[in-house]
Amino acid sequence: MKGLKIVTVGAVLAFAASGAANAATLDDVKRKGFVQCGVSQGLPGFSNPDEKGNWAGIDVDVCRGMAAAIFGDAKKVKYTPLSAKERFTALQSGEVDVLPRNTTWTLVRDTALGLDFTTINFYDGQGFMVRKALGVKAATELDGASVCVQIGTTTELNLSDFFRANNISFKPVVFEKADEVVAAYDAGRCDVYTTDRSGLAAQRTKMKNPDEHLVLPEVISKEPLGPVVRHGDNNWGDIVRWTLYAMLEAEELGVDSKNVDKMKDSKNPNIRRLLGVEGEMGKNLGLPNDWAFNIVKQVGNYGESYERNVGPNTPIALARGVNKLWKDGGLMYPMPVR
Amino acid sequence: MAAEADIGQAPGKPPIWNDPRYRALFFQVVVLGGIIFFFVYITNNTLANLERQGIASGFGFLSRTAGFDISMHLIDWDEEMTYGRAFTVSVINTLLVSFLGIVFATLLGFVMGVARLSRNWLIAKLSAVYIETFRNIPLLLQIFFWYFGVLRNLPESVRESVNVFDLAFLNRRGLFVPSPQAEPAFWVVIVLFFGGIVASIFLARWAKQRQEATGQYFPVLSTSAGLILGVPILAFIVLGFPINWDVPELGRFNFSGGAELIPEFVALLLALSVYTASFIAEIVRAGILSVSHGQTEAAFALGLRPNWTLRLIIIPQALRVIIPPLTSQYLNLTKNSSLAAAIAYPDLILVFAGTVLMQTGQAVEVIAMAMAVYLTISLLISALMNWYNKKIALVER
Amino acid sequence: MAETQTYAPGEHPDLAPPASTVGVIGWFRANLFSSPLNIALTAFAIFLLYLLIPPVVNWAVTTSVVSGDTRERCDMGRQLSRMNGAMSLVNLDQLGDPAQAKAEQEVQDFFGQFVTRATAEGADVPGDLRDILGAVDVKEVQKAIGDAISNKDGGALQANFAALAPLVDWGAARNGACWTFIRIWFKQIIYGRYPDQELWRINLAFLILVVAAIPLFIPQVKGKIWIGAFLLIIYPLIATYLFAGITRQDIIAWPYRLMGWAALALAALSVLPQFMKFRSWSVPVAIILLVFVPLWGLSAPSTWTAGLIYGAPGWSVAVSVLLTIVAPLVAVGALFVGGLREFVFERFWLICIGVGLIAFIGFAFPLLAWDPLAGPSPPWAMAVAPAALALAAIAPWGYDRSVGPVGRLAYLLLPVYLIAVFLTLVGPPDFLNIAALDWTANATPFFRGVAQVLPSVETPLWGGLFLTLVIAGVGIVASLPIGVVLALGRRSTMPIVRAVCIAFIELWRGVPLISVLFMASVMFPLFLPEGMNFDKLVRALVGVALFSSAYMAEVVRGGLQAIPKGQYEAAEAMALTFWKSMWLVILPQALKLVIPGIVNTFIGLFKDTTLVLIIGLFDLLGAVQLAATNQRWLGFAVEGYVFAGLGFWVFCFGMSRYSIHIERKLETGHKR
Question: What is the ipTM metric for this complex?
């Protein structure tokens, strides 16, 4: 039958056609005119919208930095709030271009999910919060406790590992949204609330009575958090990675958003290279040469971003700790811009 | 054939595209082609996407170690077991809440349906208010109401639990009840119970045959009740109550021992039963009303006593109207149990389409499996219902 | 001595019925106290009412708090009441007993919280409370109570507590529902996070809906079909643009969409009559056109404009222009050249297939070389769309030499269409610079001047009752037509069609909506080619529409089955074609029969929209849940649920009453 033939041919052609070439996210982003940024549904200090819907946080600053680097305008970002469940699908399917959503770098995620982790913008670790009234001083005393935890996170697995390793039992109560987990803990559904320690600090500030709660001293896991991109687009990954390195490098070189204009006249060749006065660093990334200048000018260096979002003067009040620069004894070690 | 030729010039064969048969064939081929194209297209896209992004595929993940805990499990579970086992655990949890929901919803629904027809004005109106309230409010809202609104307002501290004779305790962590631990001798009771059921079936057959042959009546119902319930209870007493009750005791954080019904389970069960019962009540009412009063009068005219009229005339006819929509309500309840995901009851959707999906990242396989489970349950119940419908359908002459 | 009065048979005057069977007493006797069982039931019911109604009224009305802008207003009353509750547990003679230590602690804690709130700088203290606070120095009392408890001085505690009597009374009158919570969050619950200055758009759309829908409910109004058509076809478009905003691209895109749809409609219209007459060899051509033109035509308007907006590769535009110009020019030119005209008519189907092949190559070739990063518009659609439209436009000439009115219309439209395509695609300023076609930056001057009319509001900002109505509305509008087609398919005699429809219906009916939504949110993106993706709300809407259409199909099937076979046979005897007999005879009757069923499905759908909150869309319930889990407003979940429940109940109950009303109205129509 003619119809059958046509349909078959069409099917075969379509079949043959869908083998796709590698994606150039940068071109796509330039064409759209903005960076589509996958963020959390609201985690203070990391990515949180205010009442007017303006996003702020240390994760959000990654996207803003990228927009500054690509377009010279940190405002050219659109945000997609994602649950823990949706985040990877959204990135894989191209719904978002980059996912700086306090996501822990793990081997499985880096390999089996078709994702690439670029670098780390926050070193974290999982902790426990309990009510002071319980009189618990260490996590190993938590035998038989019920624990509120968010579903589908590394937190959920670490929790099981920790209790199993210490041969004590617990009862998990898992919720989809971070807000619901906190509400459940606050309402007394669980004895323990567990998440990354930065998250504990952030959520504790929002409890009815912050002084009633205690963060236990144990850190039961390593949680390196960093922005994620799709596997296979190395140039795009480079841009994400170097956006962060530029922010760190700027801090290391003492360049911040206030002095960056003056620093252009600096004699220090490192600064001159970073700010695009010398060399063609931007071109190698496929970006304008003043990419890092724009990042620092509009978003600030890493230290500024940290202080503004999670630092001691914010309600979250996290000390810099391991997130200090390497030369101050921390783990933040930007690769040289040269 | 010969006669046909006599009628006159037979019209010429219509061209092939005017022949309804060929047109139907053509149309179907187009539809089939379109569907094949559609499936090839999405399969191909999916495979290309998975391959390009290096996402793992296949069902190998089912035999990998899960590494997370599940707050409620009827069969053995610990973190070292596999994702496949987690699947089984969660399916059992879904079936458990569905089954109990069906039982409670049916009981409540029948009571409410009968109450709706009560001659007592107040009772009828109360029942109507119940039905109209609960069937017009979304189930998810009701689940939230019970879970966040009601159960969250129970005593917070374990020591202040609502205490029922030191046997059952209710607090925000859930309902703690004694759990029966069978001693070996208890199996005798169970065997007797099932023996009673089998014996009752044979008894009913025998009684029916005898009645048809001789017209003599044998009280099947009361004898069966005695066989199924009476004998095991007697044995239970004679054997000296061969059951131990594991009573919950207060531990450091919570109760240990006994059976723990987590509040998520209680809230879900409550909401499912109350919501579905409001629909069942309407079905029951419609069923009873569908039996015309003439049937009752005819039965009385034949000299049947009222309870016999009810049993032999009214209920069989009402059931014929009630059963099909009732089954579809059962199906709805089973599907609605998936709303557990919203309040952390570890059912198929929360554990499997939630945690497992996110830990493995294999959305296609996981969602497909979850849908297949519900589909299987639905199709099974539909098939059963069709068979039953055929069996009880009116045989018209 | 009573005198016996006698009457002749039949002459006895009517006596009043016994007093116990009429009037209020009679009613009570008959309906509440007719038998011992009934009396018991009545008592039970009254007991239930006593248990339920006073506390609920007390909570919701008498002791509720409505005023104020902060949660403190509600908290102060509750804290005072809880303090009072704890105090009642304290045995004054046994202060310091560990058994009541907790109660003692709570008395201090709750009072302490109250004092902190009430005496804080700039605290939101209502006037009447301020008066009471003026008379009692609460800080002193707080200290005194603390001392009394630590000194185990029952007398002092009692005395100090007595001083708080006016406060306790004040609190007891304000420890019920906190409607302040609803008031503060009201905007979020109704509109979500939609920007304040744009709310008028939602209100306007709703107003249009109400004004347009009212005539439907007035029996005297004529021309309801046009109102219905407006509501089902034009209104959704208006609403979409009002809600999502209109950009310059939309304004540019609209003429193309209209043109695409016009050509599509022309093709369908011009082909259909011939399809039914079965007269000439043009029928296979017509069938091909009927199958492929809509395919292309449908993909064309949207993808084509998207391609324009994001800029498509130069070659695709070139192919598109070529096909657009060459194919119709040949066809049109042929009409005017005497000999060629006959030549074309005689070989019309060959030419059509030729053009089709060219278009097909234009379809297949770009597909093979498809650059997946050209944005959401596959360039082949751009290349093929104009060809498909041209094909559609010349279709009427193929089998009707006299060129009917439809053909003439196409004939008239074609030049306009060609000129418009030329101007916009190539445009005077960039006449040959096709590669520079980037519409965000390089719009032709005419369009560059068009400013943005309505700022766009992204769907994550949609929420509340507004979102609930959007989802339910889309589900309702989409599910009815799909449901009718599926129901007809399920009753078809063609086995493959029937099997497909049954499979579709049973698949969707067999799985819970939540799994469909999960599928839409995490699986659907994987089904699409790389680079193509839809908004999360759109995906959810597709899921909801497919799901509810399966249920609608079963309802409609019930109606179809209820139509007596005679109606089908009569329609066939009138020589009506399948679609005509359905459209004119069967469906009007069947749909009328199942209106209650349809409304019930709508009610179910309306309630089911709440499930979208599980995939992170904030409908009415989602907005309430968001407010209730907000850390600054924890503890008012019940108020939120009661409010949302009331909202849903009003809609659902209203619809169910309406369905019963319709049922009754239609019933009279069937009585003989």
Answer: 0.82
